[in-house]
Amino acid sequence: MIRISQLAFGLAILALILCSVGCFNHSSGGEQKEEKQEAQTNKAKPRVSPTQANGVASWRRSAYGTEAGEWFFSTQVAVGPNVFVQVRQPSDAAIRELAQGALHSLGLRCGPSGVAPLAVLRLLVIRPGDDRQVSVSAIVVLRSGLVEHLLTTHKAEKNHESILSADMDALHLYLALLAIGAKPGKPMEYREENGQRVFIPPQGDRIRVRCAYRNAVGELVIVPAQRWLRDVDKKQTPRYDWVFAGSKFLDPLEPGGKPFFGANLGRVICTSNFNVALLDLPIRSSDQEVEGLLFEANPDAVPPRGTPVAVWLSRLEQQ
User: Fold this and answer.
1) Which is deepest, 15, 56, 83, 197, by most CB within 10 Å?
2) What integer pLDDT is reported at residue 61 of this predicted model?
């Protein structure tokens, strides 16, 4: 039998949820409308973007003029450690799940016996970004110097040649990209044609990659990942999108072992071509035997080492 105090506590939780959601919707709609009006009347003013403080959406001025855009409810499912699939949810469905989850935690039932509400099985978050995206929790490990990767894995021990590193399994990221509808192609390769070695670029769906982090004053900064790179010669930001090459499985490292997913060699989001890259640039981005590495970290854009970064990946419209 449910105690009166438990029931009162449950109702309080529901009231808090509804109040928070109402404030969120009011802030999102009203502030965005004001922002658009301000932008039309005075384009010189810095743009305004939302940040999240204590779980409630609010608005602050954003660094580098970056706009986070609309905040909305999203289902977040962990595919593996530090790898998440995030899918936008309608507000009414999200409110219903939050309410059912609050009641379920108190032992109250909102449906048939034995049916657990979805809120117990998955996490609801409020976020900006694309409707369907993958989020990888990483940290900044390098701010300057030549790079072969934007993102590598901790276990691969390649932090000296990657801007970001994550404690993750690259196969989980592969599965997460499949879950949002991205189709893998194949990594780069060289072929012999007419006695010449011909470069075949990596193929696969184009993937939008962005980096989200908090600056020193707590503002949310969201930038295209390309902004953290520059070419060695002209110091310009690359204009290419990564493609979902998909990597491949390699023979077991030890006799009797299991096949090894090649991207776990650290080749997760690459800036230099590798035949086991999970994501790669669709160009001949380097030939170490002839040209050396083509890209370096941009110290003017990359935040301090140790900064937590959410790497957001979403499928782009294919050309």
Assistant:
1) 83
2) 34
CA angle (170, 297, 65) in 5-degree steps: 100
For the chain, domain boundaries: 4-127, 132-315
Q: How far is CA 94 from CA 23, 70, 110, in A?
A: 15, 16, 15
Mark residue 114 as left, alpha or beta (left: phi above 0; alpha: psi -120 to 50; beta: remaining): left
Contacts of 90 (CB under 8 A, 6+ apart): 73
pLDDT digits (tens, 9 = 90+) for 167-200: 999 999 999 999 999 999 999 888 888 888 888 9
Instruction: Give the number of other Cβ atoms within 10 Å of residue 104's Cβ.
Output: 18
Structure token pair of residue 70: 């609309």
Q: Give the model's pLDDT for residue 104.
A: 53
Give residue-wise pLDDT tens across range 5-30: 444 444 444 444 444 444 344 333 33
Structure tokens at 212: 């989200």
Using the structure block, give the residue that is written with the tokens 């409630």: 56
Low-confidence ranges of the chain (pLDDT < 70): 1-68, 94-122, 287-291, 319
CA distances from 86 to 72, 89, 100, 150, 160 (A): 11, 9, 20, 21, 30
